[in-house]
Amino acid sequence: MKLKINQRELLNGISIAQRAVSKKTNIQIHELIYFQAKDDCLLLSSFDGEIALKTKVFCSVEEEGELAVNANIIANIVRKLPDDLVTIKLNNGKITIQCEDSKFNIIAFDYYEKEDIQIPEVDPIEIDNDKLKRSIIQTEFATSLDETKLALTGILFELKEGFLNFVALDGYRVALKKLNISYPSDLENLRLILPKRSITEWIRIIGDEQITKIYKSDNDLIFDSDLTTMACKVIDKNYIDYTNIISDISTTSVYIDRKALIDSLERAQLLTDSQRANLIKISIEDTTMLIESNSEIGNVRELIDIDKEGDNLNIAFNAKYLLDGVRACDTDTIKMNFKSSLNPCLIYPKDSTREDEDYIYLALPVRLAN
Question: 0.90 exceeded by the pTM?
Answer without folding.
Answer: yes
